[in-house]
Specification:
This is Glutathione S-transferase family protein. InterPro entries: FAX/IsoI-like (IPR026928), Glutathione-S-Trfase_C_sf (IPR036282), Glutathione_S-Trfase (IPR040079), Mito_Protein_Transport_Metaxin (IPR050931), Thioredoxin-like_fold (IPR012336), Thioredoxin-like_sf (IPR036249). This protein has about 240 residues and is an alpha+beta fold. The chain has one domain: Glutathione S-transferase Yfyf (Class Pi), Chain A, domain 2. Helices cover about 55% and strands about 5% of the residues.
């Protein structure tokens, strides 16, 4: 039995990480049996990030490497039916979502002074109260440094919002009015986009990314459609949705 290790719930999200949500969707779609467990401290995970998969005595860290592993054990089902052009298109959208837009989602939580208390309560409640501000502050400093090294952190907030809007427009233009990226059933690239956007739309309380994202109606409907089809949602469902 495979074990998927993810972050615990936070910010109204049952699955707060887009990378964790993507792999949970993929495992569910492939109908590969797995158990799920949580790790609140990414520092304890291989490579210092989540998710990771425990499989047959080995640990696979990083969502893309997990997808490749699952492709191997399912006889190529992760990418089955895609042309080389479709896969190239999917990889390009993945890089846009996970290596660019993602960092502005992170910044909208971690680096917004007004929103920062939610990060402290959502992620650092496990730290002893006397050292909680210190631990949280150190982590925030690392996020800020990474954001600057990535390059987006060197721009003004206005410029960051403009970058985010262009990313969101690209995704809005890329996703279909109905169905999914490459057919009638969602695939790994649908899970990538929907996993990223679920947090942007359903994050509680709303961040500045949420406000921007809500303007992209086709993308929002698509994100809901992927989650509903697989039956795996990023947000914590209320009684009317469950």
């Amino acid at each position: 039995m495979l074990e998927l290790v993810t972050l615990p719930p936070a910010f109204g999200m049952r699955n707060v990480s887009p990378f964790c949500l993507k792999i949970e969707m993929l495992l569910t779609a492939l109908e590969v049996p797995f158990t799920a467990s949580e790790e609140a401290n990414p520092g304890k995970a291989p490579k210092g990030k989540l998710p990771y998969l425990v499989a047959e005595g080995q640990t696979i860290a990083d969502s893309e490497l997990i997808a490749e592993y699952l492709d191997g054990i399912t006889d190529g089902r992760v990418y089955r039916g895609m042309t080389s052009q479709q896969k190239a298109h999917g990889v390009a959208l993945t890089r846009l979502a996970e290596d660019h837009l993602y960092w502005m989602v992170v910044a909208s939580r971690w680096l917004d002074d007004a929103w920062w208390p939610n990060v402290v309560s959502g992620f650092f409640h496990i730290a002893p109260k006397p050292v909680r501000p210190l631990v949280a502050g150190l982590a925030r400093r690392q996020v800020r440094q990474t954001f600057n090294l990535q390059g987006l952190g060197r721009h003004t907030l206005k410029e960051q919002k403009e970058f985010a809007a262009r990313d969101l427009q690209a995704l809005e233009d890329a996703v279909p009015e109905s169905g999914f990226l490459f057919g009638e059933t969602p695939n790994i690239f649908d899970f990538t986009i929907a996993g990223m956007m679920a947090g942007a739309y359903d994050n509680q309380p709303a961040t500045w990314i949420t406000g921007l994202a809500l303007g992209y109606k086709k993308l929002h409907a698509y994100t809901e459609r992927v989650q509903e089809t697989i039956g795996v949602y990023g947000r914590a469902l209320d009684s009317s949705e469950a």
